[in-house]
């Protein structure tokens, strides 16, 4: 038994590596930059946790969400690792000062792109011996950096003082364009790339075009109340997540809502309740899901068109991590295309915003916090005209991405083949339960041979629909 296999078994409790894991870990240990694209549930955390114990120094993990950081910190502590810390805005001033003062004592250091810009934190990191650096959920560099978190684009500046360490970029989905953004931002030179097939054969795809919001809601409530979870219902509206939750609770479903306007402590509590099986369903905006370690999610339902195929696949990929049959269902109508575009662009500056923000008297410009943050970055990088052109191109790209997903759902071609092709991959084999356009046996899938899958029910929520739709 070699050293890698020994650590895998003794420290992590696994008998064998999954496909690609050993190869990636060996490249990390050799000091190479690595871009690893593996579907959710393929053990991406092991790719930085295991080599950390074979290299001297600390591992810096740049992570997009507080909940994701906290979950990974707790996982390591449960494995007996005490040398782990998360440096983020969730810490009080005193806690942060204590952590920074003792930073040399930690093996795993988690942080956010925003905290990475802190000058004192940068100085402390520069004084450490870093084994290597990890960019977790690295697709966020491309998908979020240009949208609402420009600090992702500032990572390259932060890395210049730390660039002696090699970088491991991890994500579940990435197109060639996203991989290019990852390489550029993380200052990678000829990195080793491992790209696993993104097909999840145990996830069946189901798409239904409906005529009205009422029809959409009726379908969703009937599906959830007549089938089993666990599951996640995604909606673009915070108000709708609360509505669905209330109506499902009336039907005896163990469910809670989750969105970005909730207190951080409440969100963490609900996430833990779902992971531990105290809740069967979560009604959530896209603020929920990244980093959720729950293997037995059976259903993902969307009541809208997500803003891209990549975002859709990220959310769908949270089902069936245990390799058992699951289903991803999406309910949509034509008006959802414009709604998705509005949601995607609501914090983006228009031409007039950009012109005013570039003028001397900036205090007169009333912009959202997100818009100001976006423009504060680009004002340091581009001219007024260049910034106007940049966001013109971004708007056009967003519209094309949304239209691409709508076209994919609406045409008669296999959904699975199309989503895999979006990431420049080819589908090798189709499972028996593939998609609603190929073959999909819902009775078999839900194991409900003794009763109808969808029962006709007149619900008392119909009179309330007008207030939220």
Automatic annotation (TrEMBL):
The keyword Nucleotide-binding applies. InterPro entries: DEAD/DEAH_box_helicase_dom, DNA_helicase_ATP-dep_RecQ, Helicase_ATP-bd, Helicase_C-like, P-loop_NTPase. The keyword Zinc-finger does not apply. Keywords: ATP-binding, Helicase, Hydrolase, Nucleotide-binding. It holds the Pfam family Helicase_C. It comes from the Bacteria. Residues 25-192 form the Helicase ATP-binding domain. One of its GO terms (molecular function) is helicase activity. Residues 216-373 form the Helicase C-terminal domain. CDD domains: DEXHc_RecQ. NCBIfam families: recQ_fam. This is ATP-dependent DNA helicase RecQ.
